[in-house]
Amino acid sequence: MSISSDGLRDVVLVVVLLIALVVLVTLVVTRRRLLFRNRSADGSDGAAEAPQAAVVVHGKKIDDRDARRRQIEVLSGRLGWRAPVWLETTAQDPGRGQTEKAVADGASVVIAFGGDGTTRVVAGALAGTGVPMGLLPAGTGNLLARNLGIPPNRLESSLHIALTGRNRTIDVGHVELAEAQGTPPRLESFLVMSGLGFDAEVMATTAPELKKKIGWAAYVVAGFSRLRGRRTPVTMRVDDGPVQQRKIRAVVVGNVGMLQGGIQLMPGALPDDGWLDVVVVSPRGMTGWLPVLGAVLTRRNHATVEHFRCRTIEIHADKPMFAQLDGDPAGKAQSLRARVAPLALIVRVPG
Questions:
Q1: Is beta strand 166-178 parallel, antiparallel or unpaired with respect to 276-281?
Q2: Over the stretch 58-115, which tens digit does the pLDDT of each residue have?
Q3: Which candidate in 119, 238, 272, 314 could, as Cys together with 112 as Cys, close a disulfide (CB 3.0–4.6 Å)?
C-alpha cells in the first residue's frame, strides 16, 4: 500500500507537533522543579542560592551603626549577596561566640568590622575552620589590614574585597601569658604582634580621648613620656637553642612587620612564611633611643636592636611587664611563650 505525498506530509507534521509538545511539557516540568527547589523557607525564589556573609561588629568603634548596616546591605545586594547577618560584640563576648555562631549557621565569609582587637578575636575563632575572614577596618591602627593591602576606613572598597577578593592563607600566632611565675597562663592568639615592655606600656597608658582626636599619633605622644625607664632582666629561649640573658626595654614577637606610617619594624616578615619575627630592644636611658630609632628607620643593625626568626620563643622576666596583643593592652605578664600555627587562617585580600 502506497502513501500519497499529501498523506506523508500530514504524518510528518503530526510527528513534529508531537515532538514539540513533548519538549514543551518537559521544559515546563523542569522549570517548576527548579523553582520549587530554589524556593526558600520565606517564599522567595532563588534567594537561598545566593551566598551570605556574617558581620561581627564592634559597635563602639562604628559611628551611626544603622546607616553603616544599611550601606553594607545595599552593597552586598549589588554584588549578588544576601543581606548579611549582623552580630554585635559585647563586653562579655568580644567576638568569639558570634563568630562560632556564624560558622555553625553556614556563613560563606565572616567579616570583622572594627579594629585589630575585633579582628584578632574573630580570627582566633575562625582559624582551622576553612571559612574565610573579611576585614572592614575601622580602628586606630588597623595593622593587619594595612599589611595585607586592605584600605582602612573605606567601607565600600574593603567590603568589595571581603566579598569578592581572593583567598590568602596566613599564619596565626598563639601566645601564653602568665602574670607571675607559677600562675596558670592565659591562652591568646595574635595576627600582628604580641610583646612585653615599652610598646605595651605606651598602648596601655594612651588616653582614649586623645586617640579619638588624633588617631595613632596619640601613641607617639604617650611614648615620649615613657622613654625614660630602666631595663628589665629577662631570660629568653628561641626554638631549641640555649637560654640567653638580656636586659631589655621591650620584646616584640610579630607575624607581620609594618607599623603605622609604613615603618618596617621587622623587614622581611611575611604573614604566610611559617615563621615568627622577633625584635628585642635594649636602649640605655633617654639617649639610647636615638640609635634604636635610626636602626628601625634605616633598617640597619645596631647593638641595641636584635632580630630573630623562630617557630617558638619563651621569655621570662624578673618582674611583671606590660603586655600587648595586636595593639590592645593585655595587662601585665612575667612570662610569654609564643608559637606559630602556619597557614591556619584564610583571609580575603585584594585580587
A1: unpaired
A2: 988 888 899 999 999 999 999 999 999 999 999 999 999 999 999 999 999 999 999 9
A3: 119
Tally of CB atoms within 10 A around 330: 22
Query: Is 172-343 a CATH 3.40.50.300 domain?
Result: no
Closest listed residue to residue 209, CA positions, set 218, 200, 201: 218
How many beta carbons lie within 10 A of that of residue 335, not counting itself?
23
| Domain chopping of the chain, boundaries | 48-165, 172-343
Cell of 150: 586592605
Q: Which of 55, 105, 60 is nearest to 83 (CA)?
A: 55
291 near 166, Cβ under 8 Å? no
Long-range contacts of 93-96 (CB under 8 A, 24+ apart): 94/58, 94/118, 94/121, 95/56, 95/58, 95/121, 95/122, 95/125, 96/121, 96/122, 96/124, 96/125
What is the number of H-type helices and E-type strands within the chain? 10, 14
Beta bridge partners of 250: 197, 281
CA distance 250 to 238: 16
* 219/210 Cα distance (integer angstroms): 9
Q: Which three cell numbers stand for residue 106?
A: 553556614
pTM, to two decimals: 0.81
The one-letter amino acid code at 212 reads K
C-alpha cell at 273: 612564611
Q: Phi and psi dihedrals of 42, rounded to 5?
A: -90, 10
Q: What is the DSSP string of 17-28?
A: HHHHHHHHHHHH
Tens digit of each residue's pLDDT (9 = 90 or more) over 241-297: 999 999 999 999 999 999 888 888 998 899 999 999 999 999 988 888 898 888 888
Rounded Cα–Cα distance for residues 277 and 311 (Å): 9
The C-alpha angle with vertex 214 and arms to 207 and 117, in degrees rounded to 5, equals 60
Is-contact 278 313, C-beta < 8 A? yes
Residue type at 26? T
- CATH class label, 48-165: alpha beta
